Amino acid sequence: MRLNGRETRTIWLDDDGRRVHVIDQTLLPHRVETRVLADCADAETAIRDMTVRGAPLIGVAGAYGLALATAADSSDAAVEVACARLLATRPTAVNLRWALERMRALLLATPPAERRAVAYAEAARIADEDVETCAAIGDHGAALIRAAAQGLDRPLNILTHCNAGWLATVDWGTALAPIYKAARAGVKLHVWVDETRPRNQGASLTACELFGEGVPHTVIADNAGGHLMQHGLVDLIIVGSDRTTRAGDVCNKIGTYLKALAAHDNGVPFYVALPASTIDWRISDGLTDIPIEERDPREVTHISGCDADGALVEVRLTPEGVTARNYAFDVTPARFVTGLITERGVCAASAEGLATLFPDFAAV
Ligand code: MRU
Question: Which member of 242, 249, 280, 330 is catalytic?
Fold first, then answer.
């Protein structure tokens, strides 16, 4: 997608075929800078400090991290250590484990001398598949948006939370892919963008993306969504997911659950867009089985932005020394989810619904 008018992906390989380039998302929307990941430790840091973030992109960055580790040492022990270190960077988004398990199984079945080439090829395949998958999610979701917009004499109002756009994936995005596809097909729409405290992925990343694509949007405080729904100003909600259980419970950025509750109370359809790599087929109960990441309280007590001179600054919001907790995700039970938009189509958020689209996975 376009960033500063240029088509780009979020992650790509250097001409040397070894090092990995990523967009530094901690600086957006104020600066567009890239970072080079030269070894596995760089990949670990980039995932942990959210230079790269978003469930699908974390998975791809983990895969390339393992390729970088294999380039340095292709022994079984080195592969195992790198997998464990990368897996420990962020606990909630299951795509990381999915990508690492796929890479690990392939590498351990490959002679050590061939592992480096195989690792880079597989990481590239995971990245390319992510683009195709997100494009398919976009097509299925766009059909849904078109149907919802039919007969309206005003733009369709869609609300989204956090950033589940192309910056959270390799390209296209999950929740935003349907919006991009529908907008490009001429559907008149407008997006309410939750700012998404504390890291403000909505205000800084989703707004940056929609601006770049020319999609009409308005940033709102996280607490405004319920009010808008009560006044008929939201027609549809689409969010992403960091982990979805086989029963359709959805774990996503903190605050998603409250939007789902308000949607339920106001009869607003609440959709979740996700690739199959975000489904954790091993678990059914989102409330008990998903580890919720707790991050540095400083992300709550402080806020960063750009001052009048264009310098990036961080300021404290709270009294000094105050206690804060920073839960990064919450779980929306399946009963509040109208439907799941996947690369294979749209289904009910339930074990039965997922089994209709993914009989191959659901049976295991
Ligand atoms: O903490 P982040 O920025 O990595 O959060 C993940 C997300 O971007 C969102 O939860 C998103 O809605 C799901 S991932 C497409």
Answer: 242
